[in-house]
Amino acid sequence: MIQTPTSNASAAGDQADIAAQEFLAFTLGKEEYGVHILKVQEIRGYETVTRIANAPEFIKGVVNLRGIIVPIVDMRIKFNLGTPTYDQFTVVIILNIGGRVVGIVVDSVSDVITLSPEQIKPAPEMGTALNTDHLIGLGTIDQRMLILVDIDKLMSSAEMGLIDSISA
Predict the structure, then answer these.
(1) CATH number of the domain encompassing residue 84
(2) Is residue 4, in this structure, part of any structural domain at all?
(3) What pTM does this model have?
(4) C-alpha closest to that of 59 among 147, 155, 130
(5) How much is the pLDDT for 96?
(6) Structural domain of residue 155, as residue ranges?
(7) How many domains does the chain have?
(8) Residue 122 to residue 138: CA distance in whole angstroms
(9) 151 is a domain residue
């Protein structure tokens, strides 16, 4: 059987698709962050949450999303970025993390950005002063810099266990 050039071209195209990654860009304060688009389930306006007693401060509470109780994490509090303010731009990004649905509160969402491997730089080593395990790296596009968050690592197993106990 003769192999056609098109099958080689499609294999090369698949490689290019794997190499480029899409991130949802959002802001917290003056910084721009990105989370892998495949983790995003939906984006919603911020609404009042039901507070859970004895939950850590960064867990704002829970909301009922079409019959699913979803824990809501305020990223400003989680990243220690000052007192959060909620306005018409504040949104909740609903994520699917390891089969669990979790919402994160961010200041605003801007767009979906496609980054090639050359545009993603490793996170700088900060020594013991700052834990950068939850960062994929820094994405650069023209004059923009996106802090790329590995949401699975950020929502560490200890925290996810806590979230499980709240929503169970």
Answers:
(1) 2.40.50.180
(2) no
(3) 0.80
(4) 155
(5) 93
(6) 20-167
(7) 1
(8) 6
(9) yes
